[in-house]
Design brief:
The structure holds two protein chains of two kinds. Chain A is of the alpha/beta class. Chain A is built from 15 helices and 27 strands. Chain A has a seven-stranded mixed β-sheet with strand order 15-14-16-17-22-21-20. A five-stranded mixed β-sheet of chain A has the order 4-3-2-5-6, sandwiched between helices. The two termini of chain B are 27 Å apart. Classes of the chains: A alpha/beta, B alpha/beta.
Amino acid sequence: MFLLAGAAVALPVFLHLLRRNPREPRGFPTLRFLKSVSVRETKRHRLRRWLVMALRCLVLLLLAAAFARPYLPRFTTDKGRVVVIAIDNSMSMRVAGRWDKLREWAIGQAGKGDPGDRIGLLMMNPQPAWLKNPNTDWDGTLLALREMKPGFTSTRYAPPLALAADILSRLPAKKKELIWMADQQRKGWQGADFSKKLPDGVSVKFPDPQPAPGHQAAINNAEWDTTPGSRGVTVSIRSYSVSPDTRKLTLVSGSRTIASRTIQLTPGTVSRFSLPAKEEDESSALPLRVEMDPDDLPADDVAYLVRDESHKLAVMLDEMPAGKEKTDYPGIALEASLRHPTEPISVGPLPQNDWPVTSVAVLRNPDSFRNPALRNLDQFLNRGGKAMIFLDGSAAKSDWLRGKHVEIAGRDSAESLRDWAEEHPLIAPFAKLSLLPLLDLKFSKCWSMNGNALIPLASWSDNSPGIAEMRVEAGKVLLFGFEPGRESTTWPLRPSFVPFLHQAVVTLGQTTAPAKTWKVGESIPLDGEGTWKAVDVPTPSPDLKVNGSVKPMAPGIYEFLNGSKKELFAVNITPEESDLQPWTDGHPWLEMVSPQTKTGETDVRKPLPPEESERQSPLWWWLLAAAILALLAEMTLANRTSA
Amino acid sequence: MEKTGQAPPAPQAADTDRFLAPRERLDLRMLAELPDLPLRSRYLVESLINSSHRSSRRGCGIEFSDYRAYQAGDDLRRVDWRLYARADRIYLKRFEEETQMRLILALDVSASMSYRGPRATMSKGDFARTTLGAMAMMAVRQNDAVGAALLGGGFPDYVRPRSSSAHLTSVFSLLDSDRVDRQGSLPDSLSMLVETIPSGSIIVIASDFYDSTETLGHTIGQLRHRGNDVIGLQIVDPSEADFDLESNGILVDLETGDELPVEPDAVRKQYLEAFRAFQGELAGVFSLCGVDLVTMRTDESPVAALSTYLAKRSTRI
């Protein structure tokens, strides 16, 4: 682009030609003072003007050339040695003894470095990345390799091989060695194009493929059993062993063993096993871990899970209070929600003891606020349970609420609900369509609530909350200031009643929504900024500040804390990495290495990359200096010729 | 204004003050725009006299000598009434009568004198005519006889010197002639004039003197030998003196018609060296003959030349 500026030489040439030819003759008193010098000086002057023009052209050309930053091709200095150790840090390297063996092999291949020699460490997984850039600290770099441990990701060999060879080819050195510290796993070479040659001048030292261990099986998957009537975890295990294998399978929650059984594994097949669990185990918020007797690769003998994704929302409905109302409108509405296509709700009675916190309690009867139900309620809420409470002016409810710093007051006149909190997850779906059906509701018998802990979702005419939400210990309560019957309101007969109750249960139940099971190396989307904390991981991991997403590199149970919100994530290894079969069809990777460099040494002079050549031969600098000198000469000569 | 050659006889200090006019009083552009030679000459003379702060009548050819007591029959106009007022005695001013002089104004009408450069307000010839015309006017006012001659190829046109005011018209008429001679030489023409003019005259020669200095010196020597005083007015255009032509071109010699492509920037230095050498040579010739040479640029006031003339005249009285 800058070379185009060289066309500017036309300007001085044009100016020169413009002044070249004399104009019309002019009279002058006498030429007696000119004749002796005119011809001689004019010739000399013309020569100077040509010189000035040439200098101006030269200045412009030199400047254009300098800004184009030319360079002379440079070649490698053919000195020294540069070594790159490409490290397969995938999970397959966790096979007992494999990492140490290959690491020592790589260090042995690297040998001792002479002064000026460079060595670098390139990790292959999850993407090729420098652990140590090529540097002259030979011992320090090898020490970093000794302190390194393999990870849990899967591997692909072709991209790091091409990258490492390409980088090496650009480095100036007589010997360029790539040490391939990998177990030559078949899965790693799958999809590689062995016909694609590596750059000349780079020698690669490959280790022999590592044999598959004889005792290897992997938990491919572990999930909650979704079969009706069943309760527990289903585990898929693939055996890579050469002979039948007997293992012990255990379901663990923290340090507590929930279930355990002995299983028989058939070589080369995937077997599914169930581990039974009690209801309280299933509904527990604690994460679970499925363990198998460790084999030659222990990393894939553990699977993590948080909760069953297909777990249905459950409602515990207390008995209908005695009174004039004969129809159980809430019960009918909630049972109808069982047939909801995406978020079905199962309805059941209140258990006598230990209400499960994953269920939502719907409480209408004042007896639910008297012992013994009251103790269950308090425990339920203390453990994080969620409840919907319909007020009826009973003393039991009012007393209980007063203990939570909420005062109940009856209202004399018929009311409507207004000031709906459109942003609340319960109201938002309705607000998105229309709030008109909710604004049209009539309440002939209703109660208002008053308390600092209340979050109003809808209000009566005097702005006192008619529907409100509040936290009680670890749990959450949704308060309705009316009875769900025709004696009190027209709402049960309106079309909005069923979807409203369903949405209320869903909204309360979602606070304990199960997490999806993720794979190592996957990017997990997160709800905003927070702390990513390892709960149960095979290797210690520090807490991380994350924002929007996180990419865990090790399996385990993780917790994402965002203010008061807590979310659990189960991260497991990718199943294909457990296949430790080596490449057995010869050594096709050797064909990728250039024949000239298989010996590991080359005397071929290779041109340096343009950037390096430019750095080593700053021709542009000399051009700029020459331009300045030419400019000075032009200024000097131009002053003498007035050209 | 550059003044070359032998220095003129030093005038008295009072004379110098009287003759030197502030140049800013003379508007050369206005001078050039006046329609004819008599007017231009008159404007020049008036500028000179006004600049001396003197009445044109009081200084016109009469010089104070001494006082004499009044006698019956004396002209009362010559009584010094101021002295009478101070001393209560009547005295007459006595003035020394002047000897009438002859002034010959010689104008070079060669082609080179018709040159006018871009910075000049008039050509060298017109500048010379105006200067000589002013001298003629001043001389007539002082009762001197004035004659004129045009020097060029062949015999010069000549008007004999006379002192009448009517004769001034003839002098102006000759000087204002449009005669331009491309051939001929100034010394030859001047040699012919030598035989014609009466001896003891003041001869003012206005020319650029682009001739052989040796021949010129010989001719001026002849003039001096006959008892004449000579004043040389070298008229130079600023473009000649500075050679500041702006662009390249072909220069044509106005006298010979020769052409020469010239790049002024290239030859300026050498031209100026040659020009100054000629000036020095010319000044040497005039000095050797005991003749004043005044170099006048056409972009500067000619007052200096007039002053030189008046100074020369004063030494002759």
